[in-house]
Design goal:
The protein is α/β, with parallel strands linked by helices. It is built from 14 helices and 11 strands. The longest helix is centred in the C-terminal third of the chain and has 36 residues.
Length: 472
């Protein structure tokens, strides 16, 4: 225990020093060949190694090569820096090491509050038991789609848990052309396949076209295919667009579709000044996915799925073998009855600590700060003659293209495809690419509370410098 105490103090100092120095170093650097070999090819030691030696390896071979998301000039994907409160309590959750499948202990009880707080932040109705923490939005989506599938089969007089999908009428589900790939993966994993996964076109603002949604539903009904599920986005990962949720909710109600909202990244955007009207209808969803490990910075992994009613997911998943039966579990039962995981980690401590440390005012400030910077970046882009804004800024994502004067369309396409990797290699900023309307584009997602307008200027200068590198 003495060795653990000393090593824990050293680890705490190492973590604090790392976080304090992130902004002074490169955003990203390639792993040296020597360290790459050590990381991937080391042999399992015959004898155990002292804890202090392990920390030396972490300091010298692991911490120097981060993903980059702790840096204020990291604008890639949807990856936030870790919240200080989440970092602080993560070792304590590990020290307790409970399974949060169920039982009467703090890991389970605190999850009830963490989930309720998330629901309250975005204004989603949350009856007790109608939500749980997951590894992320991919697992949250599988959980929601499984509950929707169970209800759809029940409405036809079948129990999908007993009969499976064999011999039943095909069912269709609808996602936008900008939907996250986890929806397709969930359909594949749950046996629904992609043959009946309908892609709904988007409008000029990259929002689901509800007229096209109605047309697709009608076509399926005429063909004898049963529509049962529609997924809308509250902040897409490509452009940050928020679908017309209220209109989609009305269509779902009309045709008895399960209405799911993917708010993994963008649901918290509802807290930005004057943003709430654009999220109208979110509260009407049957299920809502959101990831505390995105905008809130809870250390990975920490996703969440919320339901309007608790009975749906419990009907789809509850399976309590005799050795896990708990007569004192109460009417809500165990968390493991509402999803696929049996052994579940103590995610709630990191979520609770982060939310409590920030408070509602701090969370609102974070959202407004980052959405404001995304709009500022858009303004800087529109003021330049060598950049083009590609989509309205709705959340904290700005999508654009570098188009130097005199460069033709084909060269501009190749240039924008090559720029992200070149920017990353330079190490002064981190940018990722995407495709918008079929063309290569640049995409900056602002999530770091320490990012400033000066960092945005550096980003644009780095893009220009990287473009010169790849064209010479």
């Amino acid at each position: 225990m003495h060795d653990l105490r000393a090593a824990a103090r050293s680890a705490a100092d190492l973590a604090a020093e790392h976080l304090a120095g992130v902004s002074r170093g490169p955003v990203w650097r390639p792993v040296s060949e020597a360290d790459r070999t050590w990381l991937t090819r080391q042999s399992l030691p015959t004898g155990g190694r002292p804890l202090a030696d392990l920390l030396d390896d972490v300091r010298d071979r692991i911490l120097p090569y981060p993903m980059g998301n702790g840096h204020p000039r990291f604008f890639g994907w949807v990856n936030s820096p870790p919240s200080p409160a989440g970092v602080l309590v993560a070792p304590l959750a590990a020290a307790m090491n409970p399974s949060c499948a169920g039982g009467d202990h703090t890991g389970v009880l605190l999850e009830r509050t963490a989930v309720r707080w998330l629901a309250e932040l975005v204004g989603f109705p949350h009856p007790p038991g109608a939500g749980l923490l997951t590894s992320g939005a991919s697992m949250a989506t599988i959980t929601a789609l499984a509950a929707a599938r169970h209800r759809a089969f029940r409405d036809q007089g079948h129990d999908v848990r007993e009969t499976g999908l064999y011999g039943h009428r095909p069912m269709s589900l609808y996602v936008s052309a900008e939907a996250h790939s986890c929806l397709r993966k969930a359909a594949e994993l749950l046996g629904l396949g992609t043959q009946y996964l309908r892609t709904v076109p988007v409008d000029s603002a990259f929002r689901m076209d509800t007229g096209e949604l109605r047309r697709l539903i009608a076509a399926d009904q005429r063909a004898g295919v049963r529509p049962f599920f529609v997924a809308a986005s509250a902040g897409t990962v490509n452009t940050g667009a928020v679908d017309p949720l209220d209109d989609i909710a009305a269509i779902a109600l009309e045709h008895r579709l399960w209405f799911h909202v993917d708010g993994a990244y963008g649901a918290l955007g509802i807290l930005a000044a004057d943003a709430a009207p654009g999220y109208a209808g979110l509260e009407r969803a049957d299920s809502l996915a959101l990831d505390p490990h995105k905008w809130l910075g809870v250390p990975v992994d920490a996703g969440c799925i919320l339901f309007r009613e608790a009975a749906g997911p419990r009907d789809a998943f509850s399976l309590v073998p005799p050795y896990l039966r708990d007569e004192g579990a109460g009417e809500l039962g165990w968390f493991s009855e509402y999803g696929t995981e049996q052994t579940r980690p103590f995610r709630a401590l990191r979520v609770w600590a982060t939310l409590a440390h920030l408070g509602r005012d701090g969370i609102v400030h974070l959202v407004q700060h980052t959405t404001g910077l995304a709009r500022t970046l858009a303004e800087l882009i529109e003021a330049c003659d060598d950049f083009e804004l590609l989509a309205p800024v709705v959340t904290s994502i700005t999508t654009f293209r570098h188009c130097p004067p005199g460069v033709d369309t084909d060269r501009t396409e190749a240039l924008n495809a090559a720029i992200p990797a070149a920017v990353q290699r330079r190490g002064h900023a981190f940018l990722t690419g995407t495709r918008i309307s079929g063309a290569a584009a640049l995409r900056a997602c602002v999530l770091h509370p320490g990012t400033t307008k000066d960092d945005l200027t550096v980003l644009l200068d780095e893009i220009r410098a990287a473009a010169r590198e790849v064209t010479t």
